[in-house]
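Sequence and fold
=================
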Amino acid sequence: MTSPTRTLAAFGRDLSFGQIPEAVIEQARKAILDTVGVSIFGADLPWSRMIIDYATHYGSGGTSTIIGTEHRVAAPLAALANGALAHGFEMDNLRQPSAGVHHGSTLMPAAFAVGEEVGASGRDVLAAFVAGSEVMSRIGLAADNTAEKLGFHSPGVTGTFGATVVAGRLLGLNSEQMVNAFGIAGSLCSGLLAFTKAGNGGMVKRLHMGRASEGGVLAARLAKSGFAGPDVILEGKYGVFQSFTREPKMDRLLHGLGSHWETLRICVKCYACHITAHTPVNLLEGLKKEHGFTSADIAEIHVATSEKVLSHHDNTEPNDIASAQYSLPFCLAIAASRDPREPRSFRDNPHEDVAIRNLAKKVHMTLNEESVAPGKAWATRMTVVLSDGRTLNAAGHDFRGAPSNPMSAAELDGKFSALSSGFGNDRSAALLEKLHRLGELDDIRTLFLS
């Protein structure tokens, strides 16, 4: 009997490399390249090292690489660690407009972890990434971001299914096993947004993508062994949509499947902060460049933004780095005081900087009615009032890296090189060259060999 769950599971399993348009494959490759770079940078962060220690303690002896390190561990632990590293500093890619999906940090970790375990080719990995992206994005679109209104972090829900598709394909699941893997994945979704209101404990957000990716590996491996899950996990009573969302848009779940490619909507970040801050930060950066003022010159900042920002990203007194990166007032204060394109501007304890804390309290937010329109969630209007009486205005709906304003290949390579500089120039350049020809690799295990 056909159901949305079965239809998506079949699509995720059966989509072939040859069915995917070249532009979609190229976007997937760029997203993977971007994710490897942010993972290398993430590997050196304090909270990442804690997760790496956990993964090596319990997963030693495996064949899957923890990116940015010399460690090889069991596939589920590699997926956990790499997902956390990729989301370790708010620089991983996602969809524009937002649909509660983070492609790179949930799909790539599962793809590389299982791919190295089974010796998958680069083409296998790219096709799995696209299949997972298309399925995951549609679940996110149908959920309509309402999971976050209930306190769930949406990528912890959607990403589990994307990772399940990726892992299930690479493990060679048959049709019924993939349906069962979906059924299992539904019980592995997790991730709460309590830290956004607590103002502390933001480290846990890094774990959400890792758990999603790890959950996909677990679901697929159990299903391959014959473990079963409900075959209506998405649409059924007490299933994902009933449990994690409100008033889902079920017509979006299968719309354009196999013809309208959601992977082309992947957005690459240029700032190390939550995506809802990117348009405002981009506007402030432009005003600073045009008018030459400094943070000390700012009397007030007025931002007309989305309802989600007003409800989830309004904290003016965060007590850790992650909570600061999640707060629009704080991100604007950081961008006014430091170079927002330099990740270390957000890493070097901005929440402890008195001037930044004071400036964050001068940010006033209201609802931008334009943001309510479909596809306009990032639409922003900004007014900066300077102490000399000048009033500066700007408006926008995207930023460099969005599909509507994409980075060039050189900019993307530059981001990778900057984030992977700790690898050393020669090693970084060699890895970048392999990622450029990912589809030509016969065995993904050669990717991280020196």
User: Anything to note?
Assistant: The mean pLDDT is 96. The two ends are 49 Å apart (CA to CA).
